[in-house]
Amino acid sequence: MLRPRLLSLILIFAPALACGHNDVSETIKALTAKIEVQPTADLYYQRATEFRALQEKVHAIEDLESALKLEPENRRALVALVQLFGTDKKAPPLISRYQQFAKTKEEKFEAHFLLTHYTAQLGQLEKACSLCDALHLMRPNDDPALDLFHAGLLLDLQRPGEASTVLKKSANRTKSIVVRNNWIDAALTAGQTETVLPIIQKELTSSRFRSSWLIRRARAFLILKNKKSAQADLRAALVEITPRINPERPDLTLIADRGLIHALMGNKALAKRDLETLINSGYSTDAYRLLSDTLADN
Q1: pTM higher than 0.90 for the full model?
Q2: DSSP assigned state of 246
Q3: Which of 84, 86, 96, 89 is nearest to 56 (CA)?
């Protein structure tokens, strides 16, 4: 139920699926042998992906730079390198290069998003929001990821009403369940209970797992100053979630929801313990932002 900010909206470089250290190492050996015979930008990109899976960032960067020496306009390698550079000053020149050779609508959109993403990483959220306005005009398809990203920036800027507006328009356009749920969460943060409470009530009558919707209704009840009903919903949500959490390999989404329940019930110590688990796991901070914000507000 927690909102994703989706900073990796279009970044196409990601670690290989977890398949074991030895498997990745063997893949690197095979790619190295091919590179020694006839190096290509694609082979360097593939090996960089494997190095990233091993968290060998230096080697990944070296391979991506080698790929771009062979093919200066290799889109995949360029985007991947920008992602690895993060807020490093080496990123902007690469973004400018992409903007110069981008030809298709999709490429121009991606190049502009790289700049927007970089700006957001620098903490320049107002400027990133302005850049999002241009992205909305350039939108190459109906993918809602841009809307989720933009709404996330607005939420970080403490402008939940605007975030709700962006997400509601997106939900109407895309019919995406993910966007709709994020809109409901943003609307609750903005205090727009009358708009979303009927939807929450309907979901509670039809959903197999009700905990996320019970938490949403509890948030609505708290806004409406109905603490007794909120506490009842939170207790019911906790009863449902508890047996679903595997102590050996817990679902981090459930941990985030449990932490939020504790936070809303005023059990700060338990909420902080779940938050610590999420932080130590390396889980995306955006996936438990609502928990963090609730603890900060109380």
Answers
A1: no
A2: -
A3: 84
Q: What is the spatial distance between Cα 152 and Cα 171, in angstroms, rounded to a whole number?
A: 15
Does residue 131 have a pLDDT over 90?
yes
For residue range 15-55, list pLDDT tens digits in order.
444 445 568 889 999 999 999 999 999 999 999 999 998 88
How does pLDDT run across 63-109, given as a tens digit for each residue? 999 999 999 999 999 999 999 999 999 999 999 999 999 999 999 99
Q: Which two tokens stand for residue 163?
A: 């975030």
